[in-house]
Amino acid sequence: MYNVKIIGAGSIGNHLANASRALGWSVTICDIDPDALERTKNDIYPSRYGQWDEAIQLFESKDAPKGGFDLIFIGTPPDSHIPLAIEAVAENPKAVLIEKPVSGTGMEGAQELVDAAKSAGVACFIGYDHIIGDASCRAGEMIQAGTIGTALTLDVEIREHWGGIFNAHPWLDGPKDSYLGYWKRGGGACGEHSHGINMWQHFAHQIGAGRITEVSATIEYVSDGVVDYDRLCLLNVKTESGLVGRIVQDVITQPPRKWARLQGENGHVEWYCNRHPGQDAVCWQDANGMSGDEDFSKTRPDDFILELKHIAAVLRGEVSDSPISLNRGMDTMLVICAAHRSASTNKIAYIDYTQGYVTDAISVR
User: Fold this and answer.
1) Do 335 and 100 meet the contact criterion of CB atoms below 8 Å apart?
2) 247: closest CA among 223, 212, 295?
3) Are 245 and 255 in contact (CB under 8 A)?
4) Interacting residues of 6 by C-beta distance below 8 A, sequence separation 6+
5) What burial class does residue 150 get, using C-beta atoms within 10 Å of its C-beta: 0-12 exposed, 13-18 middle, 19+ buried?
6) Helix (H) or strand (E) holding 193
7) Phi then psi dihedrals of residue 306, to 5 deg
8) Residue 91: CB partners within 8 Å, gap ≥ 6?
9) Distance (Å, rounded) from C-alpha 305 to C-alpha 319?
10) Which CATH number fits domain 3-129: 3.20.130.10, 1.10.60.30, 3.40.50.720, 3.40.30.10?
């Protein structure tokens, strides 16, 4: 059984607390805002999961215990992630899980975090849980089995009106009340819905296409003197090996469309998130005209339970190369930053990974 500390008592913190308790782990939640802790105990947790779990301990951050935790989860706004993660690594847990995206677009301290975690031997993960769901794992199996032959192109869309986010956070009165309304803080379509970028990278890794090195972006911003976010993000990308594809992310589409398609010489594989209520799906066709359509039932809590089971499997040595590792999440962050740089300059942004996880790794021309 693991001893878990969760930093942040918002929606994600509650999901991670429930998933941890479902696995029989002990949980401590801390937050700088005592109202957030009160809301967790009397509103969010019981309304979602039936009743409050008295085994969960609650602390204001100034009073929260330090040290002695196996796992530390960070579910605060993105622009606070890296400083909190560096502090968490210093507590020497077995692992740290950081909600996505890793940071704001300044990426301040990103390389310092990577270096600190490596030096301390602390495994770090980023919460891109779509890529370790049952459906995406099945799609990966088919891709790696050679079902579609040589890959030709990859398309991913994460298009979802963010009304669902605000429904889950009724104490917020729209994007202006949180990081969501500010792209530099990690909000907007490019940051908040960066599952799309991350999934594109994930499937590209599975076919050996390498990392994204070129980004050409068209982004529609909303800036009214209060909020400053992107509501539509269109990316054309190219990898180290030359694979070309497309990524679309937005906060305006309803009903949502979360989809990926890898087209090969001999067929295709498609992934769907919530194609039907409570069901992800994988569809495929091979060179012989054989096709398949598989559904994978799940609930929202299942997403987080699978994520925590994955982390436990990594810690047991059963998974050697986690797709939600810190470095993979940092790669996604570089693409987010490159997208905004490309859009602001109307030029192609290039990523040089030898420079490390700093914005200077991105150039335009």
Assistant:
1) no
2) 212
3) no
4) 13, 16, 17, 20, 27, 28, 29, 30, 72, 73, 75
5) exposed
6) none
7) -65, -40
8) 66, 67, 69, 72
9) 17
10) 3.40.50.720
Check if the beta carbon of residue 20 is closer than 8 Å to that of residue 308: yes
- On the question of a cis peptide bond just before residue 101, with omega within 30 degrees of 0, the verdict is yes
Domain positions in the chain are 3-129, 134-298+320-364
* Terminal-to-terminal C-alpha distance of the chain: 52
Residues with Cβ within 8 Å of residue 336, at least 6 apart in sequence? 101, 105, 190, 191, 194, 197
In this prediction the pTM is 0.97
CA distance 258 to 274: 8
Q: At what angle do helices 326-345 and 110-120 cross, to 10 degrees?
A: 170
C-alpha 257/C-alpha 249 separation (Å) is 10
CATH code, residues 134-298+320-364:
3.30.360.10
**Tokens 């498609």 belong to residue:** 270
- Token pair 């802790």 is found at 37
Render pLDDT for 33-69 as a digit per residue (tens, 0 to 9).
999 999 999 999 999 999 999 999 999 999 999 999 9
Query: pLDDT by residue (tens digit) across 133-171?
Result: 999 999 999 998 888 999 999 999 999 999 989 988 888
List all residues 6 or more positions away from 352 whose beta carbon is below 8 Å from its beta carbon. Answer: 213, 361, 362, 363
